[in-house]
Amino acid sequence: MTNPTPFVPSVHARAIATWITIFPLVALGMTLLAPISVDWHPVLRALLLTVIVVPLAVYLIVPRILGVYVRSVLRRRAAAGTVPAA
To answer: How confident is residue 69, by pLDDT bands cut at 50, 70 and 90?
Structure first.
């Protein structure tokens, strides 16, 4: 019995998932930080925003979005009879 090659999302799917995650997080972060960071240097504001947004995106949100995407692709392929359901 051979193990099927795991489905890896394309670079385009990963880029879209990353953008779908990053844009709302940055928009929300900028909105929430604005009242307390008005007088801050822009680099300090960017630093704080990225310290919050990047780990959230990389470790929590993007993997979940890609997991949903992979499951939906595998379900569609299984329904079409091209690969067994995972």
So the answer is: very high
